[in-house]
Design brief:
Layout (H helix, E strand, L loop, with lengths): L18 H11 L4 H8 L3 H8 L9 H15 L3 H12 L23 H41 L11 H7 L1 H26 L7 E8 L3 E6 L5 E7 L4 E7 L2 E5 L5 E5 L2 E3 L6 E2 L2 E6 L5 E3 L2
């Protein structure tokens, strides 16, 4: 009798891979390194590492995560829509309970703790009263000195009953006081231009450059202002219009430049020749509104 061979053991099914493992496997199949992939997608290396390690919280809001995920998956040959749906289902899970909201027993307040604040307020009140008393005394002494000076000025006024012949020296004596007022008027006249000069040195308002992008195809779009702050960073869908404003010069990165129309401050502009990198493009919107290649 012939012996029947025992059936070969069936290997257990492989556990489902995570999103990051699938992205890393697709990249390795394509024979690309992390640095080469980041350069092709115009992304930072840290973004690629976070995607492959499932550290999606490091990428910011969910809309940025979905854009990076779809773009990376399509690039390495993985189904982008499927991975985005898996991430969305994972992101929709209820958050863990907040233990800080657990009720705690009420603690009795210690009345001795109120002694220090009360003493501090009392000391502050006494100090403010002393300052007010000193200021009030200085104002009163100034008023008294001003009142005492009035009779002296009145005594210097000449007698109107004096003869007309003696009035001439009196008017001549008044000339020094008039002469002393002339420098005061000249100083006031010279002080006015100084205030105008200070007003002329006030900083002029910063002019912002308005950039408008009309997309006929899906394209990755990045826009940074002159200080390096991010104005736009996402996947723009076909048929949409994206408008941003910022202090120039603006730096622009397009993933699919062929389907993008550029308009600066209401004027249509052409993407400069030689700025395209494969399907994408990098260029700078100058403060004058012209476009130039990005270095």
């Amino acid at each position: 009798m012939e012996e029947t061979a025992a059936p070969a053991p069936v290997a257990p099914p492989a556990p489902p891979r995570s999103i990051g493992e699938r992205l890393r496997a697709g990249r390795e199949r394509a024979g690309l390194s992390i640095a080469a992939t980041a350069e092709k997608l115009h992304l930072d290396i840290k973004v690629i590492e976070a995607l492959e390690a499932d550290r999606f919280a490091e990428l910011g809001a969910s809309v940025y995560v979905r854009g990076h995920l779809r773009r990376y998956a399509d690039f390495v040959g993985e189904p982008g829509a499927e991975l985005v749906s898996i991430y969305s289902a994972r992101d929709a899970r209820p958050p863990p309970p907040d233990l800080t909201q657990v009720p705690h027993p009420e603690r009795r307040s210690d009345p001795r703790r109120l002694v220090t604040p009360v003493v501090g307020l009392a000391c502050a009140a006494v100090l403010m009263l002393a300052i007010w008393w000193v200021l009030a005394g200085s104002h009163a002494s100034a008023d008294k000195s001003g009142a005492a000076a009035v009779p002296t000025a009145a005594q210097s006024v000449p007698n109107t009953a004096a003869p007309a012949v003696e009035a001439a020296p009196t008017s001549a004596a008044a000339t020094p006081s008039g002469a002393s007022s002339a420098p005061a008027m000249s100083e006031a006249a010279t002080a006015a231009p100084k205030r105008d000069a200070a007003a002329d040195t006030a900083p002029a308002p910063v002019r912002e450059t308005r950039l408008k992008l009309e997309l006929s195809n899906d394209s990755w779009v990045e826009v940074y202002d002159g200080r390096g702050e991010r104005l736009f960073y996402d996947v723009a869908s076909a048929g949409s219009v994206q408008s941003v404003s910022g202090r120039g010069p603006l730096r622009v990165v397009l993933g699919n430049a062929a389907g993008v129309t550029v308009e600066v401050d209401g004027q249509a502009r052409q993407i400069p020749a030689g700025s395209a990198d494969g399907e994408g493009a990098r260029f700078v919107v100058n403060r004058s509104g012209s476009l130039s290649r990005s270095r």
